[in-house]
Amino acid sequence: MAKKLMKGAEAMGEAAVQAGCHLFFGYPITPQNEIPEYLSSRLPQVGGTFVQAESEVASINMLYGAAGAGERVMTSSSSPGISLMAEGISYCAGAKLPVVIINIMRAGPGLGGILPSQADYFQATKGLAHGDFRVLVLAPWSIQEAADLVQDAFDLADYYCNPVMVVGDGLIGQMMEPVEFYEDRKPIKELPPKTWASTGWKRDRPKAIINSLFLDPAELEQHNIELKAKYDLMERDEVRFATYGSVDSADVVIIAYGTVARVCLSAIEALEEDGIKVAMVRPITLWPYPYEAVREVASKAKDILVVELSTGQMIEDVRLALHRPRPIHFHCRLGGMLVSPEEVIDKVKAIKAGTSKEVHYA
Amino acid sequence: MFSRQVTVLVGHFGSGKTEIALNGALDLAADGVPVTLADLDVVKPYFRSRSARHILAEAGVRLIAPEGENVYADLPIIVPQVRDILRRPRGKVIVDVGGDGSGARVLGSLTDVLPTTNIEFLVVLNFSRPSTPDTAGAIAMVHEIEAVARVRVTGLISNTHMMNETTPETILEGAHLAIETGAALDLPVVAAAIHEDMAASVNGDLPCPAFILKRIVKPPFEVQPQRKTVGPLFVLN
Questions:
Q1: Domain boundaries in chain B?
Q2: What count of CB pairs under 8 Å joins A to B?
Q3: Domains within chain A, CATH numbers bracketed
Q4: What are the backbone dihedrals phi and psi of residue A187, each rounded to the nearest 5 degrees, phi first?
Q5: pLDDT > 90: what percent of chain B?
Q6: In the beta sheet, which residues pair with residue A157?
Q7: Which chain B residues are Cβ-neighbours of A270 within 8 angstroms?
Q8: Is the ipTM of this complex over 0.90?
Q9: Topology of the domain covering B6-222
């Protein structure tokens, strides 16, 4: 298929269609409205159905029903909307349902603002909702990668029978870049038929009941043990990251994800011209987190810098990744303000000069 | 382009109206022409003309747009000064309208103040965008905009590009598709917008006049480090 110039929201909508998702349930919120907007006209073209639900709570429960019937299904929202969906996402995880959720993050807390942010890192990776569960979290840094990861998200959700979340700051929803969809794309996992799906009982198999209620504690304990085994597999097999720059001998290693990592890469190129060696580790899966990659590159770097559009939520994971307690330098912008390449350059130079003030000791 | 006192830019979502409006306003201001840019975008929440207000102010362009914290609001705000400038245009006026029929609908509410003479309504076309992959899509878009905006489109601007992956062929193919669209609708293609870096390689082969653009609407990672960021989303390099 020829490349198209697409907004991130359009590209993620089309990616869902390309992945065989014919059902979308959602409720509008800036800055991701163009995803439902796109799918409201696109899904009928492929015999699919778009429903604007009465709320986010309704949306996620529609996903629960449709996924339980074995369909590929998606919703999208932005930060406060994801909070409203939290209970339903826990139900999906508890009922082992493959659903795909896109969060185009805006600045919070509360209603906050509509400009880009990465303030939902904790929400996505650690504290999404009640109960002992995880969602696999993918974080693209370009529109092409957003399109690719949304397609992968459906395969991963089906393979693990678990919710998968794609998170991007507002720029991933709103900016335009060339995007290509590949006609011969194959699933990234070998996917068994959905024999567990509730598709109508014809006395040919045990009844398929979609449920997250287990009154018998022994049974619920076993259920949790099975879920944990699944999350262990994800941690073993699904970690994704990319590295850039002087990974074997950096003055400073930057840890950043999403579009912030692209800002950092622009800075790294300029810093290398000045003879300052900088490496970067970019987590692509925020959960499971690339602890080993961060540990490896950090062990060969003099200093560590985390750059984020939050007050430092990812620092916790970087701290966990390190062999030994070390200073972690930090730079952020908040509230919808964006990090500029110039700011990253200044921060790296300040670290080199020993004048960097924001230091979090592990 | 900008041959009339008032230029209204309409077109499909993401076709490049804001980039052309900003470039046009800055070019005219650089030539010493008094110019007003009215931001009527009620469709997209980011990358609107109002976000470039510092750049425009520095160049002496008068911006009519929501002010204060409403600069960032995702609300369909049309400030009253818009009606005033359309009723009594002073200098050149460029109107940046939101995308698709839903954005152009705003114009329908302004028909009582839109001038009847010395005004042009230009549809910006980018054939790399999914909503207008071909001339049929572009023709449908022009008809939709005319219906909801209650105006007659007077010309087309070819703006086919692929951001950093634009080639001379991208621009030329787009310009020819715009000419075909114009022929079907009996409309002139008043210009093909070309990024300044590409100008030398396509100018001679264009089937219409060229409008040379600087890229103003940029995400932060495209900002050259030695330049200061102006506001959260816009930078003039």
A1: 6-222
A2: 94
A3: 4-237 (3.40.50.970), 242-361 (3.40.50.920)
A4: -55, 145
A5: 81
A6: none
A7: 225
A8: yes
A9: Rossmann fold (3.40.50)
